[in-house]
Amino acid sequence: MINPVEALARASGASAPAIRLILSVLLAYPLGLFYRQLKGGPTVRNLFIACTGVSIVLFNYGTDLYHSMLAVAVSFLCNTFLRTSSLMVPVSFTYHMGYLLIGYYYTTSDTYDIKWTMPHCVLALRLIGLAFDLSDSRRKEAAGKPDDKCIPTPTLLELIAFTYFPASVLVGPQFSFLRYRRFIAGAYEPHTQGAPAYATKKFLQGVFYLVVNQVGTQYLPDAYLMSSEFAEESLLMKHIYMGCWGRITLYKYISIWLLAEGSAVLFGLTYIDAKPGDREYSSDELSGCSNIKVGVFENTSKYGHYVESFNVQTNTWVANYVYKRLRFLNNRMLSHLGALFFLAIWHGFHSGYYVTFLMEFMVIHMEKEVEPIFAKNEKLQQLLQQQPLLRALVFIGLKFYTIVWAGWCLVPFVFLSFHKWWSIYTTVRFTGFILFFGGNAFLPALLRAVLPKSSSPSAAKTTPPASASTDASAGVGPAVKKDN
């Protein structure tokens, strides 16, 4: 009998694991529609979610399901027997991260493989975050200061359903147990009547980006950056090709996140239940689990916009559970570095991950130093307001900067192994290292000399206030929503 997955893989040129992944993400849509019609209380709902989510992992990874099952069992034991102990978070963190890293050690290769470690990295963050939230809740209760963010210890069925939520079990997004409990209790149902239309929008956006990625990779595949044809191009064209390649590559991630978000919307998980005053939002806003802010991403004028818009829920998780927990260092730069190091090791051991996140740190730091210098120069701001042509040239320059150098920073993340990304960087003469390391060392002082800060009172009006994302996570991610 013909295996339909293998047949689709041969017809599309994709690998069988990639076909299973796409089919599983799409399968969550009819499951979400069925869930919306499901009658019964939280037990019935949890049972449906647990069974379908486990089945999806089984379909993708077969007997490797035991890795995630073991993680759930260990979390249940920790949550049950260490619920009031200060050891709960250290034990949970050490086990889940240790198991994931051991998995990377034994399964890693020179390419990005779709193996059981991919959903396991999503699971590890979800269960570690749960341990933090339970610990914080018990601490508040012990101090006699419980609030509506406190959560009870989940039952085994709740824990399995929370872990294997079918719309996010393979590729995310991350969400808290507090959100899940409110969802399963039906608190979001009055606000999710428009979910099918919103989910359709996300689905169509995901399909669009997937098509663009698939078409684009036919013209600019990964292999082109290591080819003799690429090496023979002029330095300028190499950077343009690298930028276009990077953009096309990012669309792969965007497409899968949009498709996954659409199915989560359809289930009804994504309602934003922020308190009035926490943020401005529509009473029926359904973007609470969005992993990509498409508008911000497509209108980037600085690298910080990529951080703000890309992999939002993971960045929020890191801001909550890593960056903020490093406040004892009393140094935002060290906290930022610690958060980025966590992100790198969470991805794996390949040198490319560490280089990419180091470059992110360098770029964000440079932009934070340089941007206020431009903003505080009154003459420059007035000139930009008065000269449309100059504004257009600045816009083109910033788009070139963000697209080209995002491609540069993405090279190690995609090619992973030292000999591959080093070879590509050699071909383009290490220009990114020169720009960003040199930019951090010399550019701020040079710009302060050329563009001195205006001393007039009106200059202060041109200076934008520090963004919430800068204060919350120093470039690790966007401002943290208090309900997530």
UniProtKB/TrEMBL annotation:
<feature type="compositionally biased region" description="Low complexity">
    <location>
        <begin position="455"/>
        <end position="474"/>
    </location>
</feature>
<keyword id="KW-0594">Phospholipid biosynthesis</keyword>
<dbReference type="GO" id="GO:0047184">
    <property type="term" value="F:1-acylglycerophosphocholine O-acyltransferase activity"/>
</dbReference>
<dbReference type="GO" id="GO:0006656">
    <property type="term" value="P:phosphatidylcholine biosynthetic process"/>
</dbReference>
<feature type="transmembrane region" description="Helical">
    <location>
        <begin position="389"/>
        <end position="418"/>
    </location>
</feature>
<feature type="region of interest" description="Disordered">
    <location>
        <begin position="455"/>
        <end position="484"/>
    </location>
</feature>
<dbReference type="InterPro" id="IPR004299">
    <property type="entry name" value="MBOAT_fam"/>
</dbReference>
<comment type="similarity">
    <text>Belongs to the membrane-bound acyltransferase family.</text>
</comment>
<protein>
    <recommendedName>
        <fullName>Lysophospholipid acyltransferase 5</fullName>
        <ecNumber>2.3.1.23</ecNumber>
        <ecNumber>2.3.1.n6</ecNumber>
    </recommendedName>
</protein>
<keyword id="KW-0443">Lipid metabolism</keyword>
<dbReference type="GO" id="GO:0016020">
    <property type="term" value="C:membrane"/>
</dbReference>
<feature type="transmembrane region" description="Helical">
    <location>
        <begin position="18"/>
        <end position="35"/>
    </location>
</feature>
<keyword id="KW-1133">Transmembrane helix</keyword>
<feature type="transmembrane region" description="Helical">
    <location>
        <begin position="333"/>
        <end position="356"/>
    </location>
</feature>
<keyword id="KW-0256">Endoplasmic reticulum</keyword>
<dbReference type="GO" id="GO:0071617">
    <property type="term" value="F:lysophospholipid acyltransferase activity"/>
</dbReference>
<dbReference type="Pfam" id="PF03062">
    <property type="entry name" value="MBOAT"/>
</dbReference>
<dbReference type="GO" id="GO:0030258">
    <property type="term" value="P:lipid modification"/>
</dbReference>
<dbReference type="GO" id="GO:0005783">
    <property type="term" value="C:endoplasmic reticulum"/>
</dbReference>
<keyword id="KW-0444">Lipid biosynthesis</keyword>
<keyword id="KW-0472">Membrane</keyword>
<keyword id="KW-1208">Phospholipid metabolism</keyword>
<comment type="pathway">
    <text>Lipid metabolism; phospholipid metabolism.</text>
</comment>
<keyword id="KW-0808">Transferase</keyword>
<feature type="transmembrane region" description="Helical">
    <location>
        <begin position="87"/>
        <end position="105"/>
    </location>
</feature>
<feature type="transmembrane region" description="Helical">
    <location>
        <begin position="430"/>
        <end position="451"/>
    </location>
</feature>
<keyword id="KW-0812">Transmembrane</keyword>
<feature type="transmembrane region" description="Helical">
    <location>
        <begin position="42"/>
        <end position="59"/>
    </location>
</feature>
<dbReference type="InterPro" id="IPR049941">
    <property type="entry name" value="LPLAT_7/PORCN-like"/>
</dbReference>
<keyword id="KW-0012">Acyltransferase</keyword>
<comment type="pathway">
    <text>Phospholipid metabolism.</text>
</comment>
<feature type="transmembrane region" description="Helical">
    <location>
        <begin position="250"/>
        <end position="272"/>
    </location>
</feature>
